[in-house]
């Protein structure tokens, strides 16, 4: 396939994209033409194969192939309504995969929608990584604030470390060393750097509750504050386990520091790319 031909097909596929309720989609009637099918009946057979593949993949067909109505011109400035299907990017990908790959348009579409689908997956993955890094930063801020509150109430840094450790034991049912061993965390690193996002947020919520209640109840001294923090972690644990989430059984996540370096590196590459374009 020549580069000029690829460019033309790319522009046609891009121009055909529309938005339905905030979701990027393509009209099945328009895609029929783009993919080189002259008869709707033949194209419907390909769509049905794609629907079967969608269902086999565990996806809801109606989420990717919703039926819609479309007005088309029939001559003499008159229109009539016909059946159509709003196809998501994923639906288009499945249609291309089940089409006649001998067609130039199908071969292009298979690669076009594969790249588009992969791009969406990469964006989703980056957002999840970004959320985890931000959750870890938020936990650090919360614990720093809590440490300051406790210091004013007679708890030094060593006492704060003990309180935090007791809280973790209440949340995970394991002491720090046992938890690190179970999750394969280096002894020199904080547990939170390897926790999944939901566990980081659970620790953050418990710490926020402790900070608020220490002030509202005017708690002073390590013993009273330690009990408060344990109770708050137990409350958060109970909430999670009632929903079928057992914190200590969740798999460890990638080192959050590596994630941060990866995100920073991506941003630098993006900035360099933009400078070159200018």
Description of the structure:
- The protein is α+β, with helices and mostly antiparallel strands and 278 residues long.
- The chain folds into two domains: 3-118, no CATH class; 127-256, no CATH class.
- 67% of the residues lie in helices and 10% in strands.
- It has eleven helices and four strands.
- The chain has helices spanning 3-16, 28-34, 40-56, 61-64, 89-97, 104-151, 157-172, 176-183, 197-216, 222-242, 256-277, and strands spanning 18-20, 23-27, 67-75, 78-88.
- The protein has a four-stranded antiparallel sheet with strand order 1-2-4-3.
- Strand 1 and strand 2 form a beta hairpin.
- Helix 3 crosses helix 5, helix 6 (104-151) crosses helix 11 and helix 9 (197-216) packs across helix 10 (222-242).
- The chain is elongated, with a radius of gyration of 28 Å.
- The mean pLDDT is 89.
Keywords:
278 residues, alpha+beta, four-stranded antiparallel β-sheet, 4 strands, elongated
Radius of gyration: 28 Å
Query: Which regions are unreliable across 5 or more consecutive residues at pLDDT < 50?
Result: none
Number of helices: 11
Indicate the multimeric state. single chain
Report on the biggest sheet: 4 strands, antiparallel
**Helix-and-strand structural type:** alpha+beta
What's the order of the H and E elements?
HEEHHHEEHHHHHHH
Q: What's the arrangement of strands in the largest beta sheet?
A: 1-2-4-3
**Gap from first CA to last CA:** 30 Å
Rough outline: elongated
Q: Give the proportion of residues in helices.
A: 55-70%
Strand elements, count: 4
In total, the number of domains comes to: 2
Average per-residue pLDDT, rounded, comes to 89
Strand content: 5-15%
């Amino acid at each position: 396939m020549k580069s000029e031909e690829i460019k033309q097909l790319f522009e046609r596929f891009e121009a055909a994209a529309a938005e339905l309720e905030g979701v990027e989609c393509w009209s099945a009637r328009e895609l029929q033409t783009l993919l080189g099918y002259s008869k709707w009946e033949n194209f419907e057979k390909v769509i049905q194969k794609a629907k079967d593949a969608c269902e086999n993949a565990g996806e809801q067909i109606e989420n990717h192939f919703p039926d819609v109505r479309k007005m088309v011109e029939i001559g003499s400035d008159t229109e009539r309504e016909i059946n159509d299907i709003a196809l998501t990017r994923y639906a288009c990908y499945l249609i291309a995969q089940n089409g006649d790959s001998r067609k130039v348009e199908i071969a292009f579409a298979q690669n076009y929608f594969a790249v588009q689908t992969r791009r969406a997956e990469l964006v989703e993955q980056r957002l999840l990584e970004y959320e985890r890094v931000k959750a870890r930063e938020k936990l650090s801020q919360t614990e720093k604030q809590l440490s300051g509150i406790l210091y004013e109430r007679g708890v030094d840094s060593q006492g704060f470390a003990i309180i935090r450790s007791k809280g973790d034991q209440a949340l995970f049912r394991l002491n720090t060393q046992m938890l690190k061993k179970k999750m394969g965390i280096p002894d020199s690193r904080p547990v939170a750097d390897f926790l999944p996002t939901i566990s980081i947020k659970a620790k953050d919520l418990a710490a926020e509750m402790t900070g608020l209640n220490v002030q509202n109840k005017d708690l002073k001294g390590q013993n009273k504050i330690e009990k408060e923090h344990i109770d708050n972690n137990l409350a958060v644990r109970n909430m999670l386990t009632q929903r079928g989430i057992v914190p200590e059984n969740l798999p460890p996540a990638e080192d959050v520091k590596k994630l941060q370096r990866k995100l920073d590196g991506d941003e630098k590459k993006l900035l360099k790319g933009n400078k070159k374009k200018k």
